[in-house]
Write a structure and sequence with these properties.
The structure is a homodimer.
Chain A lengths: L6 H12 L3 H8 L4 H7 L5 H10 L2 H10 L2 H9 L3 H8 L5 H9 L3 H10 L3 H11 L6 H4 L5 E4 L4 H11 L9 E4 L5 E5 L1 H5 L18 E2 L4 H10 L4 E5 L5 E6 H19 L12 H28 L1 H6 L2 H4 L1 H25 L6 H29 L5 H31 L10 H23 L2
Parallel strand pairs in A: 1-2, 4-5
Antiparallel strand pairs in A: 2-3, 5-6
Helix pairs in contact in A: 3-5, 4-5, 7-9, 8-10, 14-15, 16-22, 19-21, 19-22, 20-21, 21-22
Chain lengths: 451, 451
């Protein structure tokens, strides 16, 4: 942990690779954690990476591969033969990780890799897991866990556990099943360590076990793990038969992806991208919302065009279009963000009309505050006539209230319809508020100024 | 797990409470998980909640209290005497949770509660933990863990472990220290179960242990836990002496809060609020950005006002102000969101000028695409003269490029300065782009149309 990964380290490593000095290269890496190796890997040339992967112990290579970003891993996998992938990497991986890597291969290569696996039980488990959708409990679970029969006594259980745990890095929970493999409960290691050896497991295990069905959505699994503070959760099929377990580290990844997705949606980015993706990928993720925003802007232009009389008589009204528009946008984003987040973390419990009424009051309060300040500026700074100032302020309050209620209503509506409310934030709200805002502004002007 | 919490259940429960039928009320709750009880608790009256807390077993009451939202818990705590809080609740809590609850009490009540604690060791641990800042490793850690001396053999370790684990719900890791309490490594329960009893721990333990200092920032601890897929991490003081452990469930809460905070900042909400907070709290969180947005709008009005000649000669230019403004806003938010997220998940590695150059190209590409469509509409729909159409398009491309580079630069700049880049998203970018966008638009108009 005391080795610093800097430019000197990387250039020394590159030298070793160029000179094919495998001994020195190995020595440089041996004390590093795979996650640390994976961190600087993308800074090396692809050939250098592949040289190091072949150099490292299989267990370490496999762990490094898993820690890489998907794009980087895919490039590296293309350089490896099915035999190398199977024997050096997949064999060393837990079934859930193995499935993730195999899913990234082409169909043909996938089959070749599976055929090359020597441990037939491991291969069978992998094939089983490949059936499940990536974003379900089945797609997240692993087959590595310890399972005991309720009819065993402590001494048999410990012996069986030792046998089963041989290939496991660590054991946190022991699952108790009956003869039909139906999940009955869990047994804590602590209890096993502290009970006399002839006691039957039946008398020891905890029947209150949380579990999920294999078809459950991964985000729902994440909610259960969070709610009950679990380290892992067993996965069962329709007949309650134990199929696998999901550990909290995989759930952390689900949570992070979900948070990133919501954040990106709020910012008007339609697919998961990173700063280091290609310009083309980034454009595909960003252009859709820019185009929708553009049409919103063109609609606003049409609306203003429809009120050309204003341009003649009260051109000062046009000065305040940006103010109306940006205020409507900001209010709308705030309202929708609070609802989206409330739906996600379960703090929204009341009825819809109550939430809307609250947003109405909130909009009125904020709107009046802002309108008073704007009144001051429009009068003293821009010298706007009283009636025009009044128009601007009434429009501002109205726009804020409407933007706040739209921002509240749309995510609630989407959620009721079973759609992801997060898509309604960001540019969606901004664009619709651009159009509404400008329209309301000029309608109120028309009514109050009577042109 | 099969009991459904619905209106019928709640009204039946309320009936039991009204009739002071403690037996039936207890029966209704006995099979529920504390997290499930906490979920419907806020729907009951405060007196009903307090009645149930006194009715439930202390262990369950304590767990329910911990699962409540902070606001709800505070209200309930006010109804309880220091003696009740100490004996019924704090005694049943792990030290880290106990500290969280005690921190929510008034200074006077805090001392009374601590004085009432009968288990002096527990009280001492709590007082120790109260010294640490809430958002540091010390503020997250608990004192409940199992610690063994490297000089012990397996049989002594198992005996000691049983003694220490008596009050622990579950044991995942065993920490190995020397005579000075310095952290040396970890011992897996699995190894303890599978090694002969006379072996010295010195020969068994794993020296590669990840740890954090007590003063470490909680978000940094979360990063380490995620990077190395840990279930828990030990906390040491400056002299490497083992002080406590942090478990992954507490880190999940840190991650969720962090994600919520970033999301809210992007939506222009300045403090952590929920949909069910009071209108006053929500206003305090929302008004600051609305006011800043308002000043941005007034600045934009001033800028337009400075170009009044345009209003006379090319009033059609004003139609496209909303388009320019919303496009600049959308581009800016997209760019900054990608950088903020990249900084958070570590995908930003290149140099600043490379990122800016990429955004420049991206802005150019997206800008040209959008400009061509706008050109079409402005010509055929609005009948804008060629030169004015050209002005709009050149302005659009320029504004998009500048918005993209500003959106990229500001979060990078804030991050270099050690500030949270997330504050630069949302309204900050929108407001600055409102002003820049309008200014650039009219400047280009002035140059091209020569007024």
């Amino acid at each position: 942990m005391s080795i610093e990964i800097n430019k000197d380290f990387l250039s020394a490593l590159a030298d070793c690779i160029r000179e094919q000095n495998s001994k020195s290269a190995h020595e440089m890496l041996v004390d590093l954690h795979p996650a640390d190796i994976a961190e600087f890997f993308p800074q090396l040339e692809l050939e250098e990476q592949s040289y190091l992967i072949s150099l490292l112990d299989n267990e370490v290579s496999a762990a490094v591969m898993l820690e890489l970003e998907e794009d980087d891993r895919k490039k590296l996998l293309r350089l490896l033969s099915p035999k190398e992938i199977a024997e050096d990497l997949i064999t060393e991986m837990d079934t859930d990780d193995a499935v993730d890597v195999i899913s990234e291969l082409s169909e043909a290569k996938k089959d070749e890799v599976i055929a090359q696996l020597e441990d037939k039980e491991h291969a069978q488990d992998i094939v089983d897991l490949l059936r499940y959708d990536e974003d379900t409990a089945g797609g997240l679970m692993r087959k590595e866990f310890v399972k005991v029969n309720k009819n065993w006594n402590v001494i048999t259980a410990v012996r069986e556990m030792r046998r089963q745990a041989e290939d496991l890095e660590e054991v946190y929970s022991i699952y108790v099943v009956n003869d039909d493999n139906e999940l009955l409960g869990t047994l804590s290691l602590k209890k096993l360590l502290t009970t006399s050896s002839s006691t039957k497991l039946e008398e020891l295990y905890n029947k209150n076990v949380h579990y999920v069905k294999a078809g459950a959505n991964d985000e729902d699994v994440a909610k259960i793990i969070q709610k009950y503070d679990l380290m892992e959760i067993p996965v069962v099929d329709e007949l309650m038969r134990l199929q696998g377990i999901i550990t909290v580290d995989d759930i952390i990844d689900v949570m992070r992806e979900e948070a990133e997705e919501d954040y990106q949606l709020a910012a008007g980015i339609t697919r998961n991208v990173d700063a280091d993706d290609s310009i083309w990928t980034l454009t595909k993720a960003r252009l859709p919302w820019l185009l929708i925003g553009m049409f919103g802007g063109l609609c606003a232009a049409s609306i203003i065009n429809g009120f050309t009389v204003v341009l003649e008589k009260y051109k000062v009204l046009l000065l305040f279009v940006p103010l109306i528009q940006s205020t409507a946008g900001n209010v709308g984003i705030q309202s929708s963000a609070i609802i989206v987040q409330g739906l996600a973390n379960g703090t929204i419990k009341g009825e819809v009309w109550k939430l809307l009424w609250k947003e109405f009051l909130l909009g009125l309060l904020n709107g009046l505050g802002i309108a008073i300040i704007v009144l001051f500026f429009s009068h003293f700074w821009f010298g706007t006539p009283y009636l025009v100032s009044a128009t601007i302020c009434v429009a501002l309050v109205t726009v804020i209230i409407i933007a706040a209620t739209i921002g509240t209503f749309i995510p609630l509506f989407l959620s009721k319809r079973g759609l992801d409310p997060a898509v309604s934030t960001g540019p969606f709200i901004t664009t619709s508020n651009d159009i509404f805002g400008v329209f309301i502004y000029f309608m109120i002007a028309k009514m109050l100024l009577g042109f």
